[in-house]
């Protein structure tokens, strides 16, 4: 964060300073992840009141607090802490006129694309990017407040739970380059339909100035149509499968034994071959979106292609492939899930199985926030697992029962040889896996965040087979 006195912070956010201090570090909300010289943001929730942790934040390195009442540390007191945090972040952006803000949204792939983009841009200059999926009204300003006068690129992931949310986030961090990756069914329970999701996602390109660049997925009709919602330059990406020739195009996609993809990347008559190090049937699309954004920021195609090849996983539990010492392969994609990302992960699992000759085991849990579509969506994921030839389906918890039903009723290549294992929860699922998978298998673990299925992956890697594992 840029250096600011407590009095300056108070003036910017419209608060009252109690005490004196100079803030030199970033803002943070969790005392387990402190920032030396930073500003502790004290939020009062239903169960936990951040003000009670002000002293611990000071011990961890904070010099001041932003809160709704005075604390043991020098404190700026405001009526609405979240709104004040946003105002502070907007002020910091205005004090960094040379920083290029690149923002992205989409129903899936935001974090993977963000990680690729941050890696590529870091080759060209100091880069600050969203950590994890800090993409809401707290996460976006916390990301912005990590920027310093040395920062050249600011990469911001933006999520939405309703119409108007992304517009608000863009007021905090006005983008120079803004991308919409796709419009899927994640959070459809809150929006109602994909068209409503598209209206909300498209706010990110409406926020662009005329000299900005909108980066749109040419293969998603709802996204491609957003070109009409901006006065900025439009750059598209994709493989042209929807019949719209993209500006940044991908062709000749191939996949190796463990699911790493290679492809040809083209832009304005130039071509480069990209060999990705990360696993996943959707990685080429994340990489293409990141490439289009980096090119819009002024990087050249060869630099982008070389940097994409170097990019390793930057966020945990997203297609994290680990080989146990005895040879068992575990793909931990347990960070989150929706129908589209489930299908992509299952396609990856089936591909690894077919190329390596391994038995495929999908450990799947609940997908949340799907509203009235939940039962059909879960059933469809199970049917898709059967369609792509998954051998074993372990359904974790009652909410995943419809996945098991879809798998049993599916008509995929596995046929009558498919095995369905319904379980009551994580413990029962982990116990079955511990006794029934071996070096000849590849196991995918995936569900929405609240299901915490990464614990099953951890159990497989630490308690089963021989000790030791290698992450690729």
Give the CATH level 1 class of the largest domain. Alpha Beta
Poorly predicted segments:
none
Structural class assignment: alpha/beta
* Number of domains as seen in the coordinates: 3
CATH superfamily label of the largest domain: Mur-like, catalytic domain
Bin the strand percentage: 15-25%
What helical percentage do the residues reach?
Answer: 25-40%
- Cα shape: globular
Amino- and carboxy-terminal Cα gap = 34 Å
Q: Count of DSSP helices?
A: 17
Q: Strand arrangement, largest sheet?
A: 9-10-8-11-12-13-14-15-16
The mean pLDDT is: 93
Known CATH architecture of the largest domain: 3-Layer(aba) Sandwich
CATH topology of the largest domain: UDP-N-acetylmuramoyl-L-alanine:D-glutamate ligase
How many strands?
23
Largest sheet, in brief, is:
9 strands, mixed
Rounded to the nearest angstrom, the radius of gyration is: 23 Å
Description:
With 472 residues, the chain is α/β, with parallel strands linked by helices. The chain has three domains: 4-84, MurE/MurF, N-terminal domain (Udp-n-acetylmuramoylalanyl-d-glutamate--2,6- Diaminopimelate Ligase, Chain: A, domain 1, 3-Layer(aba) Sandwich), CATH 3.40.1390; 96-310, Mur-like, catalytic domain (UDP-N-acetylmuramoyl-L-alanine:D-glutamate ligase), CATH 3.40.1190; 320-462, Protein-Tyrosine Phosphatase, Chain A (Alpha-Beta Complex). The protein contains 17 helices and 23 strands. A nine-stranded mixed beta sheet has the order 9-10-8-11-12-13-14-15-16. A seven-stranded mixed beta sheet has the order 21-20-19-22-18-17-23, with helices on both faces. α2 (54-60) links the parallel β5 and β6 (64-67). α11 (283-296) runs antiparallel to α12 (301-310). The two termini are 34 Å apart. The mean pLDDT is 93. It comes from Nocardioides eburneiflavus.
């Amino acid at each position: 964060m840029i250096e600011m006195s407590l009095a300056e912070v108070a003036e910017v956010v419209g608060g009252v300073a109690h005490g004196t201090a100079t803030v030199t570090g970033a803002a943070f909300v969790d005392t387990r992840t402190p920032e030396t010289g930073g500003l502790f943001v004290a939020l009062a929730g239903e169960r936990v009141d951040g003000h009670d942790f002000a002293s611990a934040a000071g011990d961890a390195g904070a010099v001041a607090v932003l809160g709704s009442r005075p604390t043991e540390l020098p404190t700026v007191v405001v009526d609405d802490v979240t709104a004040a945090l946003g105002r502070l972040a907007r002020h910091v952006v205005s004090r960094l006129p040379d920083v290029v803000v690149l923002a992205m949204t989409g129903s899936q792939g935001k974090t993977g694309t963000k990680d690729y983009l941050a890696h590529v841009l870091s080759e060209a200059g100091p880069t600050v990017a969203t950590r994890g999926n800090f993409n809401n009204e707290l996460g976006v300003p916390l990301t912005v407040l990590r920027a310093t006068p040395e920062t050249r690129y600011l990469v911001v992931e933006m999520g939405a739970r309703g119409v108007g949310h992304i517009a608000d986030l863009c007021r905090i961090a006005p983008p120079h380059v803004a991308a919409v990756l796709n419009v899927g069914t994640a959070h459809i329970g809150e929006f109602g339909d994909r068209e409503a999701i598209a209206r909300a996602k498209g706010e990110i390109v409406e926020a662009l100035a005329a000299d900005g660049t909108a980066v749109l997925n040419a293969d998603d009709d709802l996204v491609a149509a957003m070109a009409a919602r901006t006065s900025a330059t439009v750059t598209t990406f994709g493989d042209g499968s929807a019949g719209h020739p993209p500006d940044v195009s991908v062709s000749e996609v191939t996949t190796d034994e463990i699911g790493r993809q290679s492809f040809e990347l083209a832009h304005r008559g130039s071509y480069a071959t990209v060999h990705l190090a990360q696993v996943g049937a959707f990685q080429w699309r994340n990489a293409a979106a990141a490439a289009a954004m980096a090119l819009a920021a002024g990087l050249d195609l060869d630099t982008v292609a070389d940097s994409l090849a170097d990019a390793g996983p930057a966020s945990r539990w997203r297609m994290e492939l680990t080989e146990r010492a005895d040879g068992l392969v575990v793909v931990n994609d347990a960070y989150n899930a929706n129908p589209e990302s489930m299908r992509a992960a299952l396609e990856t699992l089936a591909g690894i199985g077919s190329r390596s000759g391994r038995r495929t085991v999908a450990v799947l849990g609940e997908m949340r926030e799907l509203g009235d579509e939940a039962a059909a969506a879960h059933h469809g994921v199970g049917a898709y697992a059967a369609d792509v030839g998954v051998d074993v389906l372990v359904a974790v918890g009652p909410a995943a029962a419809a996945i098991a039903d879809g798998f049993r009723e599916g008509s995929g290549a596995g046929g009558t040889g498919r095995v369905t294992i319904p379980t009551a929860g994580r413990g029962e699922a982990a116990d079955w896996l511990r006794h029934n998978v071996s070096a000849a298998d590849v196991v995918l673990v995936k569900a929405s965040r609240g299901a915490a299925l990464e614990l099953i992956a951890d159990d497989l890697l630490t308690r089963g087979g021989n000790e030791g594992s290698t992450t690729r």
